[in-house]
Amino acid sequence: MKIDLTETTASKINKALVQGRRAVGTPAVGMVLTLVIVTDEENAYDALKAANEASREHPSRTLVVIKRVSRSPRDRAKARLDAEVRVGADAGTGETVVLRLYGEAINHAQSVVLPLLLPDAPVVVWWAVNGPLDPAKDPLGALAQRRVTDAYASEQPIQELSGRADNYTPGDTDLSWTRITPWRSMLAAALDQVPCTVTSAEVEGEEFNPSCELLAMWLAGRLNVPVKRTVSAGPGLTAVRMESSSGTIVLDRPDGSLATLSMRAQPDRAVALKRRETSELLAEELRRLDPDDTYAAALKFGVDRLGEPAGATQGPGEPAAEESTPAKPAAKKAPAKKAASK
Questions:
Q1: Buried residues in 94-113 as b, exposed as e (16+ CB within 10 A)
Q2: Under the phi-then-psi rule, with left for phi > 0, alpha for psi from -120 to 50, and beta for the rest, what region is 22?
C-alpha cells in the first residue's frame, strides 16, 4: 500500500503510517530498528531496493531522505516536504517513508526525521552516496548509534579514508570494510593452518577501490609487516600474497567469483569468494550495533604508512624507519672486515 503526501508534516506522516498498518491488517509494530538512508534522486531506487532486501533479516522502519535542489531563489527560500508512505508488500517486512525535502527543509533534515524514529529502538544512518567526513557531527548522524558510509561511492575514495581516520568516532563504519569480511576470514584461517611467521605481504586490486587499502592496512597492523599495494584490472580485490617462513601463501581471485588458495606443500583449493550485493553488506552491518574496534584500528593505521618497514609499523610515537636502520653500526664494522681479509 502506498500513500502520497504533498506539502506535508511529520505529524501527518505518522497518521498515514497508522492508517496504512490498519488497512493492511498489521496494527502492531514489529520492527527492531530505524534505518535512515541519505541519498539523492539518482541513487534512491538502488538504495531502497537494498534496504528492502536487508529488511528480511532486520525488519525496520526505513526513512529515505532525498534532498531536492530547487531551481529558483523563491523556491529555495520556501520549506516544503513531500512524502511517500509504503506499508505491507510494498515495504518489504517493515515500513518505508520516502522524504523529499525542498528549500529550507534541506538544512533541517534532522527535525523532519526525529519525530518519525521508532521509540526505544536503535537508529542506523546510511549515506548511500556523498557521506560526510565526520559522520558523528552530521545532524542526522548525531541521532544514530551506528553510522554507515561508503567510500567506494565517493570521487576520491583514498582521501576519504584519510579524512574518516582523522574524524573517527565509535559507531562509524564503511561498506568498503564490510566488503573484505570474507577475505579477512579466509586469510586468518589460512594462517591458522600453517605455523609460520609472515615477513611481508602484497594486496592486489583495482586502482580506485578503498577495500584494497583497508585490507592492506589491516594486514600491516595485525601482522606488523610491510604490505605493498599493487594495481590490477580488477574486478575489485584480485589477490593477496604473503611471504612467510614456511613459503608463499596466495589467495587469488581473478574473476570476482571463485578464488584459489595456494600454500606450500598443500594442494591448491578452490574457495567461493563471490562479490556481494549491497543488500548483503547492509544486512551484515545491521547485525552488530556496537563499535567495530577492528575497523577503527585498520583505518587509523594510515594509508601513507603502507609499504614501510616492519619497524615503522609499531604505531604513533615510534621512531621512523630511517632512524631504526643500523646504518652507523654497519659503518663501524667495515674496518674489522678489512683487517680480517688481510
A1: bbbbbbbbbbebbeebeebb
A2: alpha
Q: What's the confidence (pLDDT) of residue 187?
A: 93
- Residue 155, SS3? coil
**Residue 136 and residue 172 in contact, taking contact as beta carbons nearer than 8 Å:** yes
Q: How confident is the model over 24-41, as a mean pLDDT?
A: 82
Identify the pLDDT of residue 88.
76
What does the CA dihedral 237, 54, 298, 234 come to, rounded to 10 degrees? 10
Residues 247-251 have a mean pLDDT of 92
Beta-sheet pairing, 146-149 with 172-174: parallel
Q: Determine the Cα angle at 260 with ends 267 and 236, to 5°.
A: 165
pLDDT above 80 for 342? no
In whole angstroms, what is the distance from residue 35 CA to residue 146 CA?
A: 10
Burial of 137 (0-12, 13-18, 19+ CB in 10 A): exposed
pLDDT band for 337, please (50, 70, 90 cuts).
very low
Whole-angstrom Cα distance, residue 223 to residue 235? 26
- Cα(213)–Cα(185) distance, integer angstroms: 17
Question: What is the C-alpha to C-alpha distance for residues 5 and 16, in angstroms, rounded to an integer?
Answer: 9
User: Given the DSSP bridges, would you call strands 258-262 and 247-252 parallel, antiparallel or unpaired?
Assistant: antiparallel
Give the span between the Cα atoms of 249 and 262, in whole angstroms: 6
Contact indicator for 20, 31 with CB cutoff of 8 Å: no
Bond into 235 cis (ω within 30): yes
Q: What is the DSSP string of 76-115?
A: HHS-EEEEEEE-GGGGTTSEEEEEEEEGGGGGGHHHHHGG
